[in-house]
Amino acid sequence: MGYSKYRLNKIFRKVTLLTFLLACIISSLSLINNTLFETFLNLSPFHSDVSKFTNIFESILSPRCSNFTEYNLDSQPYWQFYGFQHHMKLNQETLSNILKIDSKQEDEMMRLHNELLNNYLTTSFKPFADLQNKFNENDKNNNKGIIYVSGKKYYWLTMISIKYIRDILKDKTPIEVFVPIKSNDDQHCNKMTMVFSNVKCTYFSDYLSHSQIKKLSGYQYKSLALLLTNFNDVLYLDSDNIPISNINDMFENPNYLKSGFVSWADFWKRSTNYKFYKMSGIEGVASPISSTPSAESGQILINKKSHLKTLLLAYYYNYYGPGYFYPLFSQGFPGEGDKETFYLAGRVTGEGAFMITGQKTKSFGYINNKNSYVGQGILQFDPNNPSRYWFLHLNYPKLNVAEMLKNGYFSADKGQRYWTTIRYAQDDSKRELFRQSVGRDLEYEVWKLMFELLSKDFKGFLIFNEIGNDEMADYVKEHLVKLENSKIGKI
């Protein structure tokens, strides 16, 4: 027999009230006894496994010491590019003293690592065992996919990257786009699933409570997306990152198949505080790790079955990143944020990480009218072949055409090419011509795709609140014509 709408609403209210009361009881118990809290949490049907870890992080594993906010030294004089000599020493003594860390903070970080590694990142903790079983089940042939974290500020950039994959690379690898909270007013992700084949939208709010999600932002979302995706072999991409090489080659790369995790280098030398290695129990390998370059996490290639502990520890590092782990790992060097959390988590758990070392990371940009180089982004390469480029990370300026319009990018006196030169950081003697080195006219390709997105793929759908697609397409078309007519751009 069916239920009336009134009766269904009444049942729903009762379930909601019971859920609320159970949550209150669990929260109260957490203040009384950790073991009881874990028991109730493990039995709770109202939490996903990742949500259960989030609750553990928030309650039992909340740091009981002050944030890392004080510095003994100004870090800026020590900023150094990887692979270049510098007059300031960046040795163990310096790396131990840029950030001010007292004994209480050091002891607390050691306690937290011991708790995590010995009690929670083990099969004796049911949510970990459940996640491990899930990842083992997902470890099937061809369970490979690409994921992004997107949202209002990033949808357009995500569209460009996906369109390049589908239209230029002709690649059909499944794609999953993560968005923090589902909103009826936001139809961008749903529209992407209709425009592009084999693209799925996933919302954090389907797995975590709104209160849990609101405690996270920006950099912190990446580790969460990597945990939640059902893909087993995962290529994570920032929205402003465009893969320009065969995706399958990436998943079949020998270094990835051997290690299960490939991490790319940033421009900078590693600036992690040396005390971290003792805090995390890996003091014995501090020296080789400290000699690696800083990590650049605009792209991550990882196997979830072999690196579950790494992903959970990276999630913890990001959960408490802004106050604790971001300053501990970077000490005020450029790009401080989530970028070190994945590589260092791989070393702490012992699951490993292949870091591309021994090669300087390349920048691409242009030479301005003062004969000075102006960088536009990062070129990341095949781990086995530094001359073969895999990723175009367009981090400055990002190709948000609405913002570019506001900033005068499309004014009549503009129209030069901005992707003309490749060089190592701070080394003008190693300049290369962008198009000749990459092998094609990427700048023209990307702008043409942007025009198609506006004039064809999303025609009639308002991408930008500030300006309609047709009007924006006119500006993009004018710039595209300038690229076509420029001397460097002719084929």
Commentary on this structure:
There is one protein chain. The longest helix has 28 residues, at 5-32. This protein is of the alpha/beta class. β10 and β11 form a beta hairpin. The relative contact order is 0.11. It has three domains: 7-40; 103-355, Spore Coat Polysaccharide Biosynthesis Protein SpsA, Chain A (Alpha-Beta Complex), CATH 3.90.550; 362-485, no CATH class. The chain is built from 21 helices and 13 strands. Residues 8-13 have low confidence and may be disordered. 43% of the residues lie in helices and 17% in strands. The strands form two sheets. A seven-stranded mixed β-sheet has the order 3-2-1-4-7-6-8, with helices on both faces.
Question: Termini distance?
Answer: 72 Å
- Name of the top-level CATH class of the largest domain: Alpha Beta
pLDDT < 50 runs, ≥5 residues: 8-13
What is the total domain count?
3
What would you report as the Rg, rounded to the nearest angstrom? 24 Å
Reported for the largest beta sheet, the result is: 7 strands, mixed
Output the strand order for the largest sheet.
3-2-1-4-7-6-8
Q: What is the CATH architecture descriptor of the largest domain?
A: Alpha-Beta Complex
The tally of strands reads 13
By secondary-structure content and strand pairing, the structural class works out as: alpha/beta
**What is the typical, i.e. mean, pLDDT?**
88
Net shape: globular
Helix content: 40-55%
